[in-house]
Amino acid sequence: MEVIYLLVPLSVAFLAFAVWVFFWAVRSEQYEDLEGPAHRIILDDREKRHETAARLPAGSRPAAPAGTARDAGGDRHPEPPA
């Protein structure tokens, strides 16, 4: 029963810390742009491909990395294991 005298203040301190972290995140605008980083990754990849294609001689095209949508495409519906 004496452990409650320790756990209740620790719980209150943890709650106060969690509330402080939440308000810090809101004040520092951590929640302002939730979708931007996800779109930035996609757009950054496209920009790199266009830069690479612009540097290559006419008529040559870089090979698509394995596992992308531009490979053979035969693995969309793989056969179930026997």
TrEMBL record:
<protein>
    <submittedName>
        <fullName>Cbb3-type cytochrome oxidase assembly protein CcoS</fullName>
    </submittedName>
</protein>
<feature type="transmembrane region" description="Helical">
    <location>
        <begin position="6"/>
        <end position="26"/>
    </location>
</feature>
<feature type="region of interest" description="Disordered">
    <location>
        <begin position="52"/>
        <end position="82"/>
    </location>
</feature>
<keyword id="KW-0472">Membrane</keyword>
<feature type="compositionally biased region" description="Basic and acidic residues">
    <location>
        <begin position="72"/>
        <end position="82"/>
    </location>
</feature>
<keyword id="KW-1133">Transmembrane helix</keyword>
<dbReference type="InterPro" id="IPR004714">
    <property type="entry name" value="Cyt_oxidase_maturation_cbb3"/>
</dbReference>
<keyword id="KW-0812">Transmembrane</keyword>
<dbReference type="Pfam" id="PF03597">
    <property type="entry name" value="FixS"/>
</dbReference>
